[in-house]
């Protein structure tokens, strides 16, 4: 059982109320208003990070139909994030700037860190790149913590309903299954 599975409802609510988006909204208020697909990204130089933004952008009409609000947590500056989200047509999406990865490493979300060199030589990552991530989304320099792993959390009624914990940076989550 992970730390995030053993957290209390009070601890989760306290954590969510302390997290503010770039627009100033608390994550708790957003979750109380509608279910949230909380997407933790790696750094913006990562092709899989940009792929995740693109994937969610493509799913925006279906997420809206289901009443699910996407919210992204990132390690970059607000300016760098804005450029990336604008590029993928998600200018108005709620974002949380967490350059110190405090939220990533909180007891509630407990997203791990890995050796980035192992990720680069991992065959699953190469397969992901060859399947198109590197060609469609490019590869850039590390802009943040290259050791930080991403993650997905489906939050509903101030609870974590489901989560997707990445094993490699190239994992391909089924977003719609996560929010089903």
Describe this structure in words.
With 180 residues, this protein is of the alpha/beta class. It has one domain: Glutaredoxin, CATH 3.40.30.10. It is 40% helix and 16% strand. Strands 3-2-1-4-5 form a five-stranded mixed sheet, sandwiched between helices. The chain starts with 8 loop residues before the first helix and ends with a helix. The N terminus is likely disordered.
- The tally of beta strands, per DSSP, is 5
Helix and strand content put the structural class at alpha/beta
Count of structural domains? 1
Helix/strand order: HHEHEHEHHEEH
- Mean pLDDT over the residues: 85
Distance between the termini: 23 Å
Radius of gyration (Å): 15 Å
Sketch the major β-sheet: 5 strands, mixed
The DSSP helix count reads 7
* CATH-derived topology: Glutaredoxin
Residue share in helix: 40-55%
Class, according to the CATH hierarchy? Answer: Alpha Beta
Query: What would you give as the CATH superfamily?
Result: Glutaredoxin
């Amino acid at each position: 059982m992970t730390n995030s599975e053993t957290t209390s409802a009070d601890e989760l609510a306290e954590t969510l109320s302390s997290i503010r988006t770039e627009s100033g909204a608390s994550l708790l208020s957003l979750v109380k208003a509608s279910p949230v697909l909380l997407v933790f990204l790696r750094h913006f130089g990562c092709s899989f990070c940009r792929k995740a933004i693109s994937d969610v952008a493509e799913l925006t009409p279906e997420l809206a139909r289901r009443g699910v609000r996407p919210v992204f947590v990132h390690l970059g500056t607000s300016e760098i994030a804005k450029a990336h989200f604008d590029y993928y047509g998600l200018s108005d999406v709620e974002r949380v700037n967490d350059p110190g990865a405090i939220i990533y490493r909180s007891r509630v979300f407990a997203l791990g860190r890995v050796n980035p060199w192992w990720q680069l030589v991992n065959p699953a990552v190469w397969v992901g790149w060859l399947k198109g991530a590197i060609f469609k989304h490019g590869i850039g320099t590390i802009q943040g913590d290259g050791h930080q792993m991403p993650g997905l959390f489906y939050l509903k009624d101030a609870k974590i309903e489901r989560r997707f914990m990445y094993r490699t940076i190239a994992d391909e989550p089924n977003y719609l299954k996560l929010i089903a």
